[in-house]
User: What shape does this take?
Amino acid sequence: MQRKRKRKRKQTDPDNPFWTEADFRRARPAREVLVEQFGRAKAKKMLRPRGRPKTGAARTSISLRLPAEILARWKATGPGWQTRMVEVLAKAM
Assistant: This one.
């Protein structure tokens, strides 16, 4: 079996050159640079964590096979059906 040879990357974008070791040593955290560029309030907004906020009661994702009619009945109760299902399961414990 013949191996593919890795091609040497070409520098095609003069506005975005490849970083050298010296570039990495000079680099500063975004936390510092954004404050200088955009101000403290805008930088704080840009640096906030993405996604849903973490909760104290973390849940575990599982795979559960249910009959289609049972799942359809829970979904028919509207938004929040998963939370209601968890409440019913907790009461049954």
